[in-house]
Write a structure and sequence with these properties.
single chain, alpha/beta, Rossmann fold, Dimethylsulfoxide Reductase, domain 2, Barwin-like endoglucanases, 3 domains, six-stranded mixed beta sheet, 25 helices, 26 strands, globular
Length: 702
């Protein structure tokens, strides 16, 4: 991204970098208007302290400032560190919980000085599972490293299967490559319960039922193996466990799979044949698939398909979930986990899963057993007495919204939030600290959609008194008396540490040995060493698994007492579960095309782009008629965890038995809650991820 700055130091234009092979000079619709966010009149520009007596409760947009008073940075830092020390002394340092994710996704902003600070403090560590952990673990179990077919090679595919991937909506830099492939004769198949922008333009949209992806992938395997469409030579050379997988796949007949997915048996067979008989067949898989109870098994099954057919041998063939595994940053240097040994604990702290934040804030240390499928064995001991939120808005994005809100509203919970705007989370803060946008600090970036290391140079001075994560946590550490020199490192020093720059000036990180800091400053982006035209990552061996083979059967999973093969079991919260008797509709709390999770949701331009479907419940006409609901009616959507009111929007493209609404800020909703009032803290089958898309509800006219 290129930024034009005028003589007064104000950014006046942003544009794509035409020299970048993936972004090719254009920006997505969100970032094209990024200066609206930078210069928004609603930005928080100074440290704020909650006024005495101001209740921790949802605040009306535009009136949040009334609950806070402006203070100086010195006051804020001194008062926050004093309170953190007091809480640590009284309850132990593990009673302090950081909560962050990818609001800033650079190497420094996402995890460097902050991790050093919390390790040294002895605070609880956060298991950051909310986005990609289940799918990432699943990929690594099969292939050993989270890399896939080169993004540029989608243009060479003869068949593209977008499996839970809304490419046109939120993977927009791949869309021109899809269009080029289609001009050359490729077909686009979209597998998604919802008719996304991408599905609307597909040659074939398969609207399977939520959470049945593993069954479909195994059904495809059944057909492929039954009809001899597999690549035996590739399987023998590159994979392990085919006999066991074949035995498992025999159970998944097209007829049986059709009963789960809502497809016909003939459609299952047709999909399998078209996929297996197209050599350059590409699967673009995204993370929505893994956000159900059997999400890990689903990802494993899907990504085994190109290994079964040998698609990895061909340009334009294979699969891609993420390229992030190619970036081997020196996290030991940037995050310094060794500092935990110098903390008051003298050991690594307990781990709390971010996907069970509601449980952590309301039940930890209170003598109540964990339930509802929560598996978080490390999160025992002291109750959480302090919460430090940055890079995230858990008041909107965390599952089981009502439990999260009850926890945030605790009078005894000390909460600090570092953010740019008044969000669903800042409404509960004791202190709010102004954060920078990525135009206002320097960072180094990896990627999960390409393989270029990028230097993100600071373009403008921070507005007001906004400060970066690196500055903030370095200051907190120094005020708490931490004497380690690493807490005084500059961003440039940490970038060199992330790159593991050696005496010869080059990186020592695998795949980055050709990179110097000076070259990165000059060029802006440099490809990883393995990035080259014609890359076929799994065409030949060995692969980076323990066996050196692509693993259809996982000995590691089996040794841990789990199923070594992918399989399908209907989620507990699905039409096949007991709860369906009371809550018969499967609910999709969808991402919004013009927001990034909850980011951008408060900006008027982006809200206008989503006005047609904002606060609507999309329903199949048959489901609506059975409940005497007409298009435009006000409806109540509820389950045992919560409820919200929406406006019915009849959509014949919705699968029967499935309803959908979009994620938004709770404070911008008439009810003061959002779709996560309905979601649970039940975790995925691997990785401890959230199960946003395994949710049952009932609907009635309001």
């Amino acid at each position: 991204m290129l930024v034009t700055v005028n003589d007064e130091g104000r950014a006046v234009k942003v544009q794509g970098d035409p020299s970048h092979p993936i972004t090719q000079g254009f920006l997505c619709g969100k970032v094209a208007r990024y200066l609206d966010r930078v210069y928004s009149p609603e930005r928080i520009l100074y440290p704020l302290r909650r006024k005495p007596g101001a209740a921790k409760a949802p605040l009306q947009r535009g009136r949040e400032q009334e609950a806070f008073v402006r203070i100086s940075w010195d006051e804020a830092l001194d008062e926050i560190t004093a309170r953190l020390q007091q809480i640590s002394d009284a309850h132990g340092p593990e009673s302090i919980l950081p909560y962050s994710y990818a609001g800033t996704i650079g190497v420094l902003g996402y995890g460097s000085m902050d991790r050093r600070f919390f390790h040294r403090l002895g605070a609880s560590q956060l298991d950051r599972t909310i986005c990609s952990e289940a799918g990432g673990q699943a990929w690594n179990l099969v292939y050993g490293k989270k890399i896939g077919m080169p993004t540029e090679d989608f243009r060479l595919a003869r068949l593209i299967v977008a499996w839970g991937a809304n490419i046109h909506g939120n993977n927009v830099h791949v869309w021109p490559m899809v269009e080029q492939a289609r001009r050359n004769g490729a077909r686009l198949i979209v597998i998604d319960p919802y008719r996304t922008r991408t599905a609307a333009q597909a040659d074939w949209h398969i609207a399977i039922r939520p959470g049945t992806d593993a069954a479909l992938a195994l059904g495809m395997m059944h057909v492929i193996l039954n009809e001899g469409l597999e690549d035996r030579a590739y399987i023998e050379q590159m994979t392990g466990g085919i006999d066991r997988l074949a035995e498992r796949a025999r159970e998944y007949t097209p007829e049986r799979v059709a009963g789960w997915t809502g497809m016909t048996a003939a459609e299952v067979e047709r999909l399998a044949r078209e996929y297996a008989t197209t050599h350059s067949a590409a699967i673009r898989l995204n993370y929505g698939v893994q956000r159900c109870e059997t999400g890990g098994a689903a990802v494993r099954a899907i990504i085994m398909l190109p290994a079964l057919t040998g698609a990895w041998k061909y340009r334009g063939g294979g699969a891609q979930l993420s390229t992030s595994g190619g970036f081997s940053w020196n996290e030991q240097a940037t995050r310094r986990p060794d500092l935990a040994l110098s903390s008051p604990l003298g050991r690594p702290a307990r781990v709390v899963n971010m996907s069970t934040l509601g449980h952590a804030l309301t039940e930890l240390g209170r003598g109540r057993e964990q339930g509802s499928g929560i598996r978080d064995q490390n999160a025992e001991g002291a109750a959480v007495h302090a919460l430090f939120v940055y890079n995230s808005n858990p008041g909107a994005v965390a599952p089981n919204h009502n439990a999260v809100r009850r926890g945030l509203a605790r009078p005894d919970l000390f909460t600090v939030v570092h953010d740019l705007f008044f969000t669903d989370t800042t409404d509960y803060a004791d202190y709010i600290l102004p954060a920078t946008t990525f135009l206002e600090h320097t960072d180094v970036q990896g990627a999960y959609g390409h393989s270029f290391v990028q230097l993100s140079q600071q373009a403008i001075e921070p507005l007001g008194e906004a400060r970066s994560n690196v500055w903030l946590f370095g200051q907190l550490a120094q005020r708490l008396g931490f004497t380690e020199a690493c807490f005084r490192d500059t961003p440039q020093q940490i970038i060199r540490q992330a790159l593991a720059i050696g005496p010869d000036g080059h990186s020592a990180n695998p795949g980055m040995e050709h990179i110097t800091y000076e070259d990165l400053e000059e060029k802006g982006h440099i490809p990883l060493a393995f990035h080259r035209d014609g890359l076929l990552p799994f065409a030949s061996g060995p692969v980076p698994t323990l066996s050196g083979k692509i693993e259809f059967y996982s000995e590691a999973l089996a040794a841990a007492g789990h199923d070594g093969l992918p399989g399908f079991a209907p989620p507990a919260e699905s039409r096949w579960g007991e709860a369906a008797q009371q809550y018969p509709l499967e609910f999709l709390g969808r991402k919004v095309d013009n927001y990034m999770n909850s980011t951008f949701a408060n900006l008027d331009f982006h809200r206008k782009m989503e006005a047609r479907t904002s606060q609507r419940l999309e329903m199949h006409p048959g489901d609506a008629a059975a409940r005497n609901i007409a298009d435009g009616d006000r409806v109540r959507v509820w389950n045992g965890r919560g409820a919200l009111h929406l406006t019915a929007m009849l959509n014949p493209n919705m699968p029967a038995g499935v309803v959908s609404a979009r994620l938004d800020w709770a404070k911008l909703h008439a009810d003061g809650v959002n779709v996560n009032a309905l979601t649970s803290e039940r975790l995925t089958d691997m990785g401890g991820g959230p199960t946003f898309y395994s949710t049952l509800v009932e609907v009635a006219g309001a």
